[in-house]
Amino acid sequence: MTKTILTIKDLHVSVEDKEILKGVNLTINAGEIHALMGRNGSGKSTLSYTLMGHPRYKVTKGQILFHGKDLLVMPADERARLGMYLAFQYPVAIPGVSVSNFLRAAVKAKRGQDVPIKEFRAELKDNMTKLGIANEFLSRYVNDGFSGGEKKRLEILQMALLKPEMAVLDETDSGLDIDALKTVAEGINSLASSDNAVLLITHYQRLLNYITPQFVHVMHNGEVIKSGDSKLAHELEAKGYDWITQELVAQA
Amino acid sequence: MVAELRQDDVLKNVGTDYKYGFHDAEKDYAFKSGKGLTREIVTKISQMKNEPEWMLNYRLKALDIFLKKPMPKWGNAKLLNDIDFANIHYYVRATEKQGKNWEDVPEGIKNTFDRLGIPEAERKFLAGVTAQYESEVVYHSIREDLEKQGVIFTDMDTGLREHEAIIKEYFGTVIPSADNKFSALNSAVWSGGSFVWVPAGVRVEIPLQAYFRINTENMGQFERTLIIAEPGSFVHYIEGCTAPVYSSDSLHSAVVELIAKPGAHIRYTTIQNWSKNVYNLVTKRAVAHEDSKVEWVDGNLGSKLTMKYPSIYLVGPRAHGEVLSIAFAGEDQHQDAGAKMVHVAPDTSSIIVSKSISKNGGRTSYRGLVKVYPEAHNVKSSVKCDALLMDEASRSDTYPTMEIDEKDVTIEHEATVSKVGEEQLFYLMSRGLSQDEATTMIVNGFFEPFTKELPLEYAVELNRLIQLEMEGSVG
Q: How many domains does chain B have?
């Protein structure tokens, strides 16, 4: 039986009184990988921030449900503890806070209790090896002076440790060279399971060469205007976005 | 520093977040001077201490200077003018005796230091301790091996009795009585403080600590510290301080003089955590001779008003000075702190790093001076000030002064003011950290360049204090 994790209903979102999302609908079930594609400025990142609860994004209408629970009444930390995760497109630096302290605090917050240090180290080491992250990484300050690739690896490392039920990956492929892209994609593939779901936000198809989504959605001007299977991504790669908007005009 | 608290203490401190605010009864006090400052009181202090004539004269001369000198018109002139010098007890002696074992310290006072965690800290990681309660040092110890190597670590009064020749030679040479109004006041009524003398070539690898506790209301504490590091020696001295919470103000006005002889290295660490009714007006200055190194590691968390600018006079070639300071100002607090580097000799270098946080309307100021004398060529100096504002009501100012009278110098200055970023908070909260946890983490990270210079136990304590201050800080 399919288990629905995330339901987005007629979602309208404004930033500084400008409406960005104009009625988004999306249902994501356990075991599914969805890709959300679209041009820059189509509202993809707004959706990701809104799902996680950024205070600057005001929901003016609609609903976001997580296992039927209303996410909109919860601040970001509560959503995270419930099982939401956002891999940021541009993760911010936290100077003076080491990666290891940060990860331990995050894991403690998510699991609601301290993880024994030995157990934590082992789990950390294992995931770092998979993602090709060197040990020195742990003593560096969070995202401070990191290369694009290092930032994205840290986002995936956090996802591996926090084990979210619903992971939203915002442009995780941007700024990565081909080797880093492969490593990150393998990391995501190994984390995806029948118990969780992933929403990949991207405007290039190239990440989808390594991760195959069951569903592909196209966002335009704050709405999902077309949904399909993975073939849609290839079609977009070949033909660009214009044909869909033209289709839309023709229908109107 | 790691005292357990009873529940009534916790309740008493609700709303203040200050766990050192308790006070002891004073019924068995040996002596408490009346309020106000007179020649008679100064003479009485000197007589009670059986001081040599020259020290009494030194005090009386300083008193004249204090009375003549006007109050500084800078810093926080309004708060300074609120000080009622006639309403202060200038000398309070709680007990007649000084203990070399904690068992010898009167029960009530010992309990206080137990609650402040001093005996425990001593057992764990210190090479020597003095504990000052009101005007006098009530406990003092130094590890035997250091004593055998000739290291002197004692309170200043004992120092004057037992090592008069050294004290007479150096006392007041780094900070003369007439330096400023408060150094004059200290010179007139000083009591307690530490005297440290490290013989040539001796390295004191484990820190020495002094702890200062004010107990009585309207108290003036005026400790006097002199540290002399002979050529090639090393010493790390740490001081901490707390006071009870009272509705009226107390005054803490210390004078600290450091002398680093050629090739010596002195590190002086302060964790100032006075209650918010204490004026903390302290003069700290070091003289650094050739190839020596002096570091002030200065943490200011407490007090109502702090005005303190640790200084280093780099008088010998290749001397190096560093001031690393943090300041935290909450509601009704003004931390006016900074540093002064005076380059007198060539090839000298200095680094100033100042970090401050203001919250709930608190105010921090960085006030600093870099001075380079003519012919002090090849001087390098770097100044970096970062201020973090937690809300709109708080304030931070920077007053850097540069007086450079030599061309062959490299001077860098950088200052930033930032707010706790919404993006940083959101990032950490999106990982499950509550807003308080996220804020604390950002703030601890901001102070990290300071904290990492502290011995581990102090770093842990400092992070805990910051956590207390941050709870419920962001609305």
A: 2
Q: Is residue B33 part of a domain?
A: yes
Q: Do A97 and B432 touch (CB under 8 A)?
A: no
CA distance B298 to chain A (A): 18
Q: What is the pLDDT of residues B346-367, one digit of tens each?
A: 999 999 999 999 999 999 999 9
Hey, which residues does B139 pair with through a beta bridge? Answer: B99, B131
DSSP category for residue A209: G
pTM recorded for the entire structure: 0.85
pLDDT along chain A (252 residues), means of 10: 92 95 96 94 95 96 96 97 96 95 95 89 93 92 93 95 96 86 90 94 86 94 92 85 81 70
| DSSP single-letter state for residue B34 | P
From chain A, the residues in CB contact with B432 under 8 A are: 77, 80-81, 106, 109-110, 162
CB A181 within 8 A of CB A172: no
B432–A109 C-beta distance less than 8 A: yes
Instruction: Identify the closest residue of chain B to A103 by CA–CA distance.
Output: B431
Half-sphere exposure (Cβ direction) of B387: Cα atoms closer than 13 Å: 24
- B333, part of any domain: no
Boundaries of domain holding B136: 7-308
Which CATH entry fits the domain spanning A4-251: 3.30.1780.10, 3.40.50.300, 3.30.70.250, 3.90.1150.10? 3.40.50.300
Cα(B434)–Cα(A75) distance, integer angstroms = 9
Q: Is pLDDT at B6 greater than 50 in this prediction?
A: no
How far is residue B264's CA from residue B285's CA, in Å, rounded to a whole number? 16
**SS3 label, residue A13:** strand
- Residue A141 φ/ψ, nearest 5 degrees: -80, 145
Per-residue pLDDT tens over the stretch B49-102: 999 999 999 999 999 999 999 999 999 999 999 999 999 999 999 888 888 888
B2, pLDDT greater than 50: no
Interface mutation target, options A85, A92, A140, A165, chain B, most CBs of B under 10 Å: A92
User: Considering CB atoms only, which of B424, B431, B444 is closest to A106?
Assistant: B431
Q: Give me chain B's average pLDDT, please.
A: 91
Considering only CB atoms, which chain A residues are within 8 Å of B424? 92, 94
Examine the fold and report which residue of B308, B330, B355 is the final residue of a domain before the chain moves on.
Answer: B308
